[in-house]
Specification:
Low-confidence stretches: none
CATH class: Alpha Beta
Distance between the termini: 26 Å
Strand order of the largest sheet: 3-2-1-4-5-6-7
CATH topology: Rossmann fold
CATH architecture: 3-Layer(aba) Sandwich
Structural class: alpha/beta
Length: 234
Amino acid sequence: MHLFIVTGSSRGLGAALTQQLAQAGHTVLGIARRAQPALQADQWALDLADPLPAAQRLQGWLQAHAGCESATLINNAALLSQPGPLAATELEELSAALRVGLEAPVMLSRAFLAATAGVPTRRILNISSGLGRRPMAGSVAYCAIKAGLDHMSRALALEEPGVAIESLAPGVIDTDMQGQLRGADPARFTEQARFQGLKDAGQLQTAEATAAAIVRHLLQPDFGKTVVSDIRDA
């Protein structure tokens, strides 16, 4: 039995990853604020802005599946605060974005590692972004979160050499998050026109095509060799 846990599984890239892994015959658990009835996977409706209960529940679930051949955690969930200056961002919105995007992956990774110590093959895939590697005004929290995922992955790879760990930028995908960036107020978010241009020029990838490329990469024997990577280079 091969276990896969996907966060942010109800839409976008997370839904595509969950569906494709489930269709391949794997045991897949999706975690998101809302269940997606169309997905052929077990689902937990949990808000990762409160990550402790999710981590505790995941640890127990994994311990109940201790005899599996492999276990993979995909930290995909993200919450984009309203594009614009940090000083104008609501504190509650900022806190939720940081908890979902960075605190939850750390907590879930800890639960995953503690509960899967005897599993022969273990992987952690953190879905990062090019914005973790280059700054952009109007998206300070998102840049910090993704840079944090990259560096968490580097440190964890040193700490857990027997676990394949990778922080992967998936390219530019046509998701609700992209729609939020395109729909932002240009007076608050100076990059709005660039994101609209990507859509107008047909340069956005579909979630399904990106998920297929990620799944292929994830299942390669050299997954994790390059800890901070980009699917376009894989």
